[in-house]
Amino acid sequence: MTAEDPDADLLARVGNQEPDAVREMVARKLPRLLSLATRMLGDRHEAEDVAQEVFIRIWKHAARWQSGSARFDTWLHRVALNQCYDRLRRQREAALDELPEQTDPAAALDDTLADAGRARRVAAALAALPSRQREALVLQYYQELSNAQTAELMGVTIEALESLLARARRSMRQQLAGERPELDAGPGGNNVDGGKPR
Amino acid sequence: MTPQRFVALTDAYGAAIEHWPQAERAAALALIEQREPLALAALADARQLDRLLAAHVVAAPAPALVSRIVAEARPVAPWQRWRRWFIGSTQRDLRHDRRSPAGNGASLRGVALLGVGVGVAGIAAGILMVSLLTQTVAAPGLTELTYSSTAFGSLTQDWSNE
Fold it and tell me: For domain A1-99, which CATH number applies: 3.30.70.600, 1.10.1740.10, 3.40.50.300, 3.50.50.60?
């Protein structure tokens, strides 16, 4: 952890078991962790379990956190990603063990009638990405990590990261072909704001 | 920066220049200032995809989840760790059961674990009864078996805040 780590002071207070610091840490990091895990796993309940596990690790290690090269937020992402990959591996193994379920016609009808909004289609497209491409896109676009942080977390070079990101975005574009984003600027405008969700 | 490099960067990082590699931002902005056609087209294309991606919003954490996580931060006595582990694993099993028919046996594990606990307590009670009945002298030991001599009595920590 470097001197510039914005979480350093808060982490020290958590290590001292200050109740306000605990609540502040949860307020600061839980939405971020939940977003990461939800987008990686495509399952809210699993994502909540991941978030809870990660916080247990925080509470356990806060008091004896050692300064190092990695920022606390990067460490958090690493721990959360490891949890996500463990669960994704178990999901794959379970899917291989289980026979396909019978389709319930009533449920299918419910699905048809349910809100099939853009968010759902984006989530489905994200879930369909190969896991490394999804990881790259989630970390760089949704979590807003720098390219260096993302590459470090993923253990790849910047060039490899850019390749993963380009393939991920190309695949998302293909999967979402036909969707029309709500434009608030004319075509060819110079607005460089990507309109990210917060 | 060449227009081709600009296109490659939009393909990878999207339209938000502030999230591009720091070293390339100034040159990229210069190309936009020059209204380079290839760069502007790539930017518009990337912006559309960015806005689609932005539709995927994750709901805020539920207050119950926040409470559970905050509660986990409190220091706990060893026996409470077991209690938390048991309750936590049972809750997770039940949640898993609701989502997956294949996990129907999971909650049974919790019930079985409870059964084992009850069984152990029963055996302990039985041993105590046998030892009492086989003693020839009125059992002074029983009167000595006060709360302070149990495993719980040796712990003086105040758990009222748990």
Answer: 1.10.1740.10
